[in-house]
Design a protein that fits this description.
The chain is mostly beta strands. It has 1 helix and 8 strands. The strands form 2 sheets. It has a 4-stranded antiparallel beta sheet, with no helix packed on it. The chain has a 4-stranded antiparallel beta sheet with strand order 2-3-4-5, with no helix packed on it.
Length: 149
């Protein structure tokens, strides 16, 4: 009888989360999974499962054709993204123009630039279509490319 009561008590504690071994302050606990799109604001970092982090570091260039103009080509925006894993830090340049590298591998993972917003709009009064860095949002798709040996 005592063994059955102990077993029931252990099951009840585990079911209520009492058996959880999460460490306080771990930024990767309950982290979002890989194989999803994530929208990161300029300078933001997202911590994913498997202790993987992705940081939107910089917009290196944005020569995309403004939405209210006619252009000879679509142009390109090139962003700098940092991949973080327990085995190191990896810098990657990704492009919106898919004739250029828009995806990269880092450690055992992959990242792809799906979209960069906002899209430039030409302002006739200022003669510019420049976007402040703080307004950029990059949509990144993160995958696991291989299993560590």
């Amino acid at each position: 009888m005592r063994a059955a009561l102990s077993t029931l008590l252990a099951l009840a504690i585990t079911a209520c989360g009492g058996g959880d071994k999460k460490a306080a302050g771990d930024p990767y606990l309950d982290a979002p999974p890989l194989w999803n799109d994530y929208v990161l604001g300029f300078g933001e970092t997202i911590n994913l499962r498997e202790s993987v982090g992705i940081e939107f570091v910089d917009v290196l260039e944005d020569t995309r054709c403004p939405t209210n103009l006619m252009c000879v080509d679509q142009g390109n925006a090139r962003v700098l993204v940092r991949g973080l894993t327990p085995r190191g830090t990896f810098l990657m340049q990704l492009n919106t123009n898919q004739t250029l590298p828009f995806a990269a591998l880092f450690d055992y993972y992959g990242v792809q630039l799906r979209k960069l917003e906002p899209y430039p709009v030409y302002n006739a009064q200022t003669g510019s279509s420049q976007i402040p860095d703080s307004q950029y949002e990059a949509t990144l798709f993160v995958t696991k490319a291989a299993e560590p040996p």
